[in-house]
Amino acid sequence: MTRRILHVVTNVSHYADPGEPTGLWLSELTHAYDIFEANGYEQRIVSPRGGKSPLEPRALKWPLLDASARAWLNDPARMALLSRTARPDEIDASQFDVIYFTGGHAVMWDFPDDAGLQELALAVWDRGGIVSSVCHGYCGLLNITLGDGTPLVAGKRVTGFAWTEEVVAGVARKVPYNAEKEMKRRGALYQKALLPFLPYAVADGRLITGQNPFSAKVTAKKIVAMLQGDRSKD
Fold first, then answer.
1. How far is it, in rounded angstroms, from Cα 148 to Cα 152?
2. Which of 4, 20, 38, 3 is nearest to 171 (CA)?
3. pTM higher than 0.90 for the full model?
4. Cα–Cα distance measured from residue 137 to residue 99, given in angstroms and rounded to the nearest whole number
5. How confident is the model at residue 208 (pLDDT cuts 50, 70, 90)?
6. Hey, which bits of 38-147 come out as E strands?
7. How many Å apart are CA 9 and CA 101, to the nearest integer?
């Protein structure tokens, strides 16, 4: 049985100040996409409004622009996937084994309160699928609630972009809230690497999260490992 992955990307192109651009941190998508593709998984990309997903400019410069992201930028077919993303209401969640929330500071605005994304994630979760995120993508998990009203993340080990990393990156005063603090407020057992910007991922059952842009590969590998384990039981 072919596994299917649903990637979630942003539609937001700037911070609160329109003169401060942001968007999808491209490698957080491409690193995972490459790994899933190598395993033969089918993949689609969805965003809150559908259509274009803008790119975070800082992620497109040396040394952050690596071979994986550069290959996407130089491939018109790949870039077309980011210009015509699906809307949540165009996606049948029952067809997907994994939902993977990508990051970039932009998602802090359009992920947390999007009902369509929440419905997709909850549907994947309820049918035994994997809910995952990397970096700021965990903002998309903040307001997902289970049938009994408890937050999805309550009592679960979770990681995502740390407040320390916001400070080091020089954007702590630009973000609309402290995502790490908000995750803890919802009862999540937040964890992070010993030092900022090290690759780090946490799997708590079917909830798999990565800390920062350099964690997409380890997050994707944990997802693959879980899917392969599931496959052995089919």
1. 10
2. 20
3. yes
4. 11
5. very high
6. 42-46, 98-101, 130-134
7. 7
